[in-house]
Design a protein that fits this description.
The chain is α/β, with parallel strands linked by helices and about 525 residues long. It contains 17 helices and 20 strands. The chain folds into four domains: about 120 residues, Glutaredoxin (3-Layer(aba) Sandwich), CATH 3.40.30; about 100 residues, Glutaredoxin (3-Layer(aba) Sandwich); about 110 residues, Glutaredoxin; about 120 residues, Glutaredoxin, CATH 3.40.30.10. The strands form four sheets. Strands 1-3-2-4-5 form a five-stranded mixed β-sheet.
């Protein structure tokens, strides 16, 4: 099933440039498997075509170029290891472009470059930024991550944000009808509406293709006698095109109308960009995984569409996954394949609900029960260990109340991932600190595998490792200190309550519920 995780989650791992919390931690699990044998970002043989920059020369270099792409990376990052050879190949090809397109990189994990990471809002690795007009405009790169795709995408970004359409044949030659594209119809290529269209095209060109025309007859679909100025968005699903004449809300129109009622996941790479967009959205998600070869697949599709129409009013977004492309999802949610067809709800607060072996006529009532608050959440937890006598105690979802909240002790808890390089480095250090403090019966150092357990919603875990400390009296604070044994011991001794465990009043479950929500922590090392 590990390969299943990779096949399902690597969709996000390959395409996402900045990983959001909702999917990134799991996606990195897949990437780290791929890159675990690589010790560091590979260096090219011979001279590199990628400029290596830092805090001393980044802005100076940007100011010398009308167009430059900068990768903010970390040497240990699995995504970065995968990207490095492709980025180098692309840089070599683009160095021959007229004019040359420059690719550069900055080690954003280096202490001296941390201010740059903050300034450019680097929340994960790698993040690629496109700087234009000597740095006057900055945007996120949202294109492919293999060499040929990078080359073609950057050539496109170098060109005009919107292509003039002079005939319907131009549309066929310019746009892929399996993707979203947007065409503006104007009486003339000037004026407030046209300028607004070009501005939006410039901002959104990494995600969509844009065109403009003087004649609506050049449009490939719909009424050709529409009068401009008007913008038509074409898409390969739901209603095939949507028009707007409101240029003041054009960005919102594109964002809203480009979302399908149901995102479809199959092994076809053409479905993957919309899947990535789906997981990037901060909505409650409804997912149905079913065998697309089943005789009654149309019944499932019809029922799920009805459910999606109902649930979208509650800002729930829906995904229909072919079982052949979705086996990794079952491991992520802690479910077995024999439960398929299965419908799941992954709520914004991280609570999960599911119904296995669901029948078509059960889908709509089940979704309605969720919206009415009548379903019981599903909690993923590794088994509570029968023996837990190592210096660093093992915590799982079903034991976190007993060990972290209700033990009456001062507890330092690490949320980690087995594949995380920095977690592996920290592991023996935590063990040494636990051994050093083992005579203090009021102190516990513990760890939770956040990939095998649902992290309670009161914890913000933006990356691995993330550590929290709870005093015996119930105060919860994030640990943001150093990673030496001495740093950890000093922090615990400074922040712990002096009371003994025998004298301490053991916190009840009610007390735990009253405990203040931990303060959010900044992005950690591995996302």
């Amino acid at each position: 099933m590990a390969r299943g995780v990779r096949s399902w989650l690597a969709i996000a791992a390959v395409y996402l440039l900045v990983c959001s919390v909702a999917i990134s931690s799991r996606a990195d699990e897949a990437v780290e498997e791929v890159a675990e044998e690589v010790d560091e970002v590979s260096e090219p043989e011979g001279p590199s075509f990628v400029l290596t920059l830092d805090h001393s020369n980044l802005k100076e270099t940007i100011a010398k170029h009308d167009f430059i792409v900068v990768e903010f990376y970390a040497p240990w990052c699995g995504h970065c290891k995968q990207l490095a050879p492709e980025y180098e190949k692309a840089a070599a090809i683009l160095s021959e472009h007229d004019p040359p397109i420059v690719l550069a990189k900055v080690d954003a994990s280096d202490e001296s470059n941390k201010d740059l990471a903050t300034e450019y809002n680097i929340g994960g690795f790698p993040t690629l930024k496109v700087f234009k007009k000597k740095g006057a405009t900055v945007s996120d790169y949202q294109g492919p991550r293999e060499a040929d795709g990078i080359v073609e995408h950057l050539k496109k970004l170098m060109g005009p944000p919107s292509i003039e359409i002079k005939s319907s044949e131009d549309v066929t030659a310019t746009f892929d009808d399996k993707k979203i594209y947007i065409i503006g119809v104007f009486p003339k290529f000037s004026g407030e509406e046209f300028d607004s269209f070009i501005d939006v095209a410039e901002k959104s060109r990494s995600q969509y293709d844009f065109g403009h025309t003087l004649d609506a007859k050049n449009l490939p679909k719909g009424e050709s006698n529409v009068k401009g100025p008007v913008v038509r968005l074409f898409k390969p699903y739901d209603e095939l095109f949507v028009d707007t004449e409101d240029f003041k809300t054009l960005e919102k129109f594109i964002d809203d109308t480009s979302k399908p009622l149901i995102t479809v996941l199959t092994k076809d790479p053409a479905t993957h960009p919309l899947v990535i967009k789906y997981f990037n959205l901060d909505n409650t998600k409804a997912l149905l995984f079913v065998n697309f070869s089943a005789e009654n697949i149309e019944e499932y599709k019809s029922a799920f569409r009805n459910a999606a129409e109902i649930s979208k009013k509650g800002e729930v977004i829906s995904l229909l996954g072919d079982l052949e492309a979705s086996d990794g999802a079952f491991e992520y949610f802690g479910l077995s394949l024999d439960l398929a067809p299965v419908i799941l709800i992954n709520a914004k607060d991280r609570t999960k609900f599911f119904k296995g072996n669901v029948k078509p006529d059960e889908i709509v009532p089940w979704v309605e029960d969720y919206l009415a608050g009548n379903l019981k959440p599903f909690i993923k937890s590794a088994p509570i260990p029968e023996v837990n006598d190592e210096p660093v105690k093992v915590v799982v979802t079903n034991s976190i109340q007993d060990i972290f909240y209700n033990s009456g002790k001062n507890v330092l808890l690490e949320f980690y991932a087995p594949w995380c390089g920095h977690c592996k480095t920290l592991e023996p250090i935590l063990a040494e600190a636990a051994v050093a403090l083992q005579d203090d019966t009021d102190v516990v150092i513990a760890k939770m595998d956040a990939t095998a357990n649902d992290v309670p919603p009161e914890f913000e875990v933006p990356g691995y490792p993330t550590l929290y400390f709870r005093t015996a009296s119930g105060k919860v604070i994030p640990y943001e200190g150093g990673r030496a044994k001495e740093d950890i011991i000093e922090f615990i001794n400074k922040n712990k309550d002096p009371q003994s465990s025998s004298a301490a009043t053991t916190a009840t479950a009610t007390d735990a519920d009253k405990t203040a929500r931990p303060e959010p922590t900044p992005v950690k090392d591995e996302l």
